[in-house]
Amino acid sequence: MSKILAIFILASMAFAGSPAPAAALPVSTFATVGGETSVPYGWVDFCKRRPQECSQPPLAARDIALSASAWKALNRVNREVNAAIEPISNFDHWGTMLDHWDYPTDGKGDCKIYALQKRRLLIEAGFPRQALLMTIVRDLEGAGHAILTVKTDRGDFVLDNLTDSIRPWTDTGYRFLKRQSQEDPNVWLSIQDVAPAVASR
């Protein structure tokens, strides 16, 4: 092997192991939220059964600095939770038409269970609670659907049990209705149907 070829291979290996440049990371936009709106029944019921999850002090809004390692962790949690939970409807699971939110204690659940579990695992991994927001949308068929919005310095992204791909919120085709406030998870805000703000970086 020539000396020049050896240097080239070593340089290529070093580049492959280096962190992804910012340009390689995705960019989204920021959804515009409106005023306070009704809190989903499922969240209220979840808080009654698990008060320790909801009795949280308000915190200043905070976005995730979207580094290569953060993006990798978000994707890992999204894929692992999607694979770990067996999908089942709310009625078939709980025997009630009332919306039931919980963690996957039996390995089964619908969209709310997926989103709550992703939120919990990401908080445990060190991501700020203020950037992980339970969100209610209308899906492509007009049905109610819950997802997890992740707020980053490169825009808002969606973790969804219907796909392993993390998408910018505007690429889902969903109609966004409401989500948790960044400051207080027990306050829910409407999402305005206006042109989104563009990420600054």
Average pLDDT figure = 88
Dominant shape: globular
Q: What is the alpha-carbon Rg in Å?
A: 19 Å
Strand order of the largest sheet: 2-10-9-5-6-7-8
The H/E string reads: HEEHHHEHEHEEEEEEE
Poorly predicted segments = 1-20
Individual helix count: 6
User: Which percent bin holds the helix content?
Assistant: 25-40%
Distance between the termini: 43 Å
Strand content: 15-25%
Alpha-beta classification? alpha+beta
Number of strands: 11
Describe the main β-sheet briefly.
7 strands, antiparallel
How is the secondary structure organized here?
Layout: H1 3-16, E1 29-30, E2 33-37, H2 41-49, H3 51-54, H4 68-84, E3 86-87, H5 90-94, E4 108-109, H6 111-124, E5 132-138, E6 144-152, E7 155-159, E8 167-168, E9 175-180, E10 188-191, E11 197-198
Q: What does this 3D model show about the protein?
A:
The protein is α+β, with helices and mostly antiparallel strands and 201 residues long. The chain contains 6 helices and 11 strands. A 7-stranded antiparallel beta sheet has the order 2-10-9-5-6-7-8, covered by helices on one side. It has a two-stranded antiparallel ribbon with strand order 1-11. A hairpin with a 5-residue loop joins strand 5 (132-138) and strand 6. Helix 4 (68-84) crosses helix 6 (111-124). It is globular. The model is unreliable at 1-20 (pLDDT under 50).
